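Subject: RidA family protein

B.,
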Amino acid sequence: MIERFDCGPRLAEMTVHNGVAYLAGQVPEDTSADITGQTAQVLAEIDALLARAGTSKQHILRAEIFLADINDAPGMNVAWDAWVPAGHAPARATMEAKLVNKDWKVEIVITAAIP
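Prediction pasted inline below.
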């Protein structure tokens, strides 16, 4: 069975199948924030979605981070490093990408196990 959360005409915010949660790319609501602030917003959204699936950031298997400007990586890492629990860093890829909204500085895709 596949469970879909907040499903719209184009995408679901999260799908769950066989004990794995797949999150759509999460983006910031407040685009006036700097990269650290935008990243913190996205990470809070990820926490909320993972909780709805019955899991948490300690169970993240993979993270894909898209930055509008790769030079923002140090600022993004400030928020990321404060958020990731010690000993639970997931496999991660960080890349520069042209994001859909020009005001987004970051988009994060997460795959997590559901214990």
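Strands lie at 3-7, 12-17, 20-23, 60-67, 91-96, 106-113.

T.
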